[in-house]
């Protein structure tokens, strides 16, 4: 009798696991240091650092295979934050720091080829084949990857004007003095 109950219980567990109802789910965690580095990076996925995106660059930094100063969109502020996180010396940016910019498609010249849509790593360009394409400004990271594949050169990069939303204001640093 007890063997029958054990066999039925084992059968229920096997059946539940095969149907996806397992009580134990396995999850593969990433490297915590890579995740912290990736959180600092600007998530432009532009490849200007020489890696195919921010996560691979973060993994290379965590392994000590890449310098922390290769990300132009992250700028000097990004290099400083990475240096603080990793306890390294902040080096000057290895490339020219660019102002924030977004892509702009000239609607009169766009032929709807979809090559820019395929090139955009963050899905900021929307449109359909043989139809007008447009850029969703809040999603565009300014990576410039859409420029090269455009056969009619109808995409230009527009600097983003300074506003309250993107102003690089930094609060003053106050130090508290304890009185004896």
UniProtKB/TrEMBL annotation:
Annotated compartments: Cell inner membrane
Top-level taxon of the source organism: Bacteria
First-listed, main subcellular location of the protein, grouped into a coarse class: membrane
Chain segments carrying region Hydrophobic: 1-23
Cofactor note: Binds 3 [4Fe-4S] clusters.
UniProt-listed Pfam families: Fer4_21, FeS
Binding site for [4Fe-4S] cluster 1: 46, 49, 54, 71
Cellular component, GO annotation: plasma membrane
Name this protein carries in UniProt: Ion-translocating oxidoreductase complex subunit B
Organism: Rhodocyclus tenuis
């Amino acid at each position: 009798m007890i063997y029958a109950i054990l066999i039925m219980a084992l059968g229920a567990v096997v059946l539940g696991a095969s149907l996806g109802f397992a009580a134990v789910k396995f999850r593969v965690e990433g490297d915590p240091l890579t995740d912290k580095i990736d959180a600092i990076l600007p998530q432009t996925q532009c490849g200007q650092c020489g890696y195919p995106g921010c996560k691979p660059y973060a993994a290379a930094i965590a392994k000590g295979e890449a310098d922390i100063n290769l990300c132009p969109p992250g700028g000097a502020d990004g290099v400083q934050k990475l240096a603080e996180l990793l306890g390294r010396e902040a080096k000057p940016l290895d490339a020219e720091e660019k102002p924030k910019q977004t892509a702009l498609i000239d609607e009169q010249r766009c032929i709807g080829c979809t090559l820019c849509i395929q090139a955009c790593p963050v899905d900021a360009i929307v449109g359909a084949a043989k139809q007008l394409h447009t850029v969703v400004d809040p999603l565009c990271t300014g990576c410039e990857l859409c420029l090269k594949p455009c056969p009619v050169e109808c995409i230009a990069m527009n600097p983003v004007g300074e506003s309250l939303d993107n102003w690089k204001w930094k609060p003053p640093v106050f130090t508290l003095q304890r009185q004896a």
